[in-house]
Design goal:
Elements lengths: L21 H8 L3 H10 L6 E3 L3 E3 L2 H16 L4 H38 L1
Antiparallel strand pairs: 1-2
Length: 118
Amino acid sequence: MLELTRNVSDLPVIPGKRYFTIGEVSELCAVKPHVLRYWEQEFPQLRPIKRRGNRRYYQRQDVILIRQIRGLLYEQGFTISGAKQHLLGETAGEDMQKSQQLIRQLRKELEEVLEILT
């Protein structure tokens, strides 16, 4: 039986596998399979690979995302729409940081090229 009272820190360690079935993810995240299927509809970031017979195969980043969603909904009290906004905000922030880091790196390289040419 799955316990909804588990904290993220109480969940089992994610094994070093490449793909996980919905049953394995259900146990790793303490969330029932029908909830995982519902979250797939609600959270666009959650897209497991579907193979033969529409069987779902989750990757490690999917399991981490599900644990994050679970934490937002069950532990922090977010609504579905609030959790969506929170995750989209984090993604936008991460993208902004990556863009700024890339710009700094390109600028540094261009300055090095300019120094070589002069």
